[in-house]
Amino acid sequence: MINKTREDSRPFASLSPDVVLDAAAAVDIRGDGRLLALNSYENRVYQLGTDDGLIILKFYRRGRWSDAQILEEHIFTRELAQAELPVAAPLSIGGGTLFHYGEYRFAAFPWLRGRTPELDAADSRVILGRTLARMHRIGALGAFRHRPALTVERLGHAARRAVLASGLVPQGLIERYARTSAQLLEAVAAAFAAAGPYATVRLHGDCHLGNLLWSAQGPAFVDLDDCMGGPAVQDLWMLLSGSGDDQRRQWAEVLEGYGQFADFDLRQLPLIEPLRALRMLHHAAWVAQRWSDPAFPRAFPWFGEARNWENYITDLADQWSTIQEPPLLL
Question: I want to staple 86 with a disulfide (CB 3.0 to 4.6 A). Which of 8, 127, 159, 220 is the partner?
Fold first, then answer.
């Protein structure tokens, strides 16, 4: 559903610097005057200076996750941290990790030093594969009760319905989008059915370079806001790019590291392109559902243009063709 009220369309309108500082002070976090807004669309994230160093404050978008879902994210992240995995786990203050201040919910995280990963550097993908295998071993020890699962319905069909309801697809392209997206989802569903049952683990869920930092100690995961239950390959396929030969080489590196700590079910390999298709569908729905938030038209000014939708529908058709081909990595 598209946000209908002005309040819902501007969920952070009243989140001024003073409110951020007051929220921090309410849980005994005393800022030293240094406050920097960081790049974030879904939530609002700030770097706050304190006498003890820098911390990160994350204010959650209203209506996206329930308190129970956020707390499960926190529990999982802290479970990973306790196993000495490199993640930014929420700070426990007074025995809690999720705090309420006025209309807002927020959490505090440690500030981690690092840079954008360079995956083509020697052994980078091997190290990432090793780290993700350790994460998945912890993820396999339990199951989410409140967090969503990776399903074709949630990331595909629901996303398609949201786009069609948004009013942002140009009138002359609605039928073409509806037909192309429906055809693509048929192919995705068939691929998941052909893959058969697979083990579901607790996943990072959105393992792209923007959610990774790299330091002398290796990778660190800084955001598990989209953690979910699903197949392990979901956390691996976004580490691949380039030509077919490039991806085969990169996959060998990822699997070399992954295999040091966990077995990878090769039956999941044919899910890579269907998962890419779901991400394409879901991303468009995500922007469409947030369009009334002023941050989104500023970040994606081309989104409502006919040329963007023409190219996007062509990309969906191309992705359907890719799914029909034998899996690249097999």
Answer: 220
